[in-house]
Amino acid sequence: MDSVVQYLLNHSRLEITLVRITECTADSFNVSVEAQVTSTGPVGSIIDAMLVDLVYLDREFGKMLLPRVKTRFNGAHVHFYDQTIHISDMAIWLQLLSDSIHNEKLMYQLRNGEAHLKGPFGTTAQCGYNKDIHVLGMNGFPVLIKDVDPEEGKVVMTMRNLSTFEIDYGPTVFEIQEGGEEGQWRTIARLKGDFFTKRGEFHVPLEVETVSLDDETNRHVDGEGEVNGSVISPAARKLGLDVEKTYYFQGVRTEKEGAWTNEAIKLIRSPVLLTEKFISLY
Question: pTM of the prediction?
Answer without folding.
Answer: 0.85
